[in-house]
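Hi there, hope your week has been kind to you so far. It would help a lot if you went through both lines with me. No rush at all, and the record is pasted right below:

***
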Amino acid sequence: MKIQIDPEQDSFLLDHVVDRAPLLPTVMQLDLVARGLTAMTAAQPTGPPSAGLLLRGIRVGPPVQFAVTGPHHLDLLGGPDPTSRHGRSAARFELRSAGCAEPHLTADAEHVSEPAGRLLPASGWADGLPGGPDLIYPPFFHGPAFQVVGAFGRTADRGLAARLAPGLPPLRWGRGPTVLQPRLLELLLQCCGIQELAGTGRMMVPAAIESVHWRPESLVPGAETSAVAVVRPRPRQSRVFDGQVVAPGGTVLLTVTGYQATDLGCPANLKHAARLIRCLDSQPEPAAHPKAGTTFLQGAPR
């Protein structure tokens, strides 16, 4: 699949700039993978009802960088995934561009029938989040389209929660709507980024994700309303995160296992980072919430 991306049409790129170069966000690269799977499976016979879309084995390579003007051409290469147990709709994808020896992103994608586990009602995590977006931006480099965190705070199990900011501008490709609702995943990834910034003083970018299970409820317009992301580091794996994004009524929208980041290569604004850390350190110890349903999944669902 040939893909042309142009900052003049795909204007969200101008809200994701590092060292004055627009970058294609990882969440938008995954949307291209979802688009490729949709195209690949469109002609297949309809199977059992889908419980959503599973992206797994995600590896993030060199960034897709853009000049401020002019298009950039990408190739999305896809074929059957021989390791899948589902088989019918599983595919392996690589996102490549001319002149770059390594793929920008690799991922396996398939439609699944197993439901995602429920964590906790969103209200149990969204109460009393003390931090606001003024503590995150400008330490984070995101512009308005990706300033997704409206409030954040610690949870009782060494984790962190973040509520989606209201009134975000539309996010779409210049040629049409997205397949996914990418800012749901962006909220979770930035939640992990806050945790990393508070712990290391460094800005991090995605490196790998074991799996992202997009529930059907997460794929429709309006799914972004008032969502809450909850993340926590794995025991004895402090740089590996699992998490979920939950709708106001407690419906799980997406589940992420095994998120890992890598150093962006430049320190954060230390003055702003210090304010963020002070806010989290001054937060009273959150009360533990009673369990409801299942807890975080460990490892990629198969």
Notes: The chain is about 15% helix and 30% strand. The two ends are 27 Å apart (CA to CA).
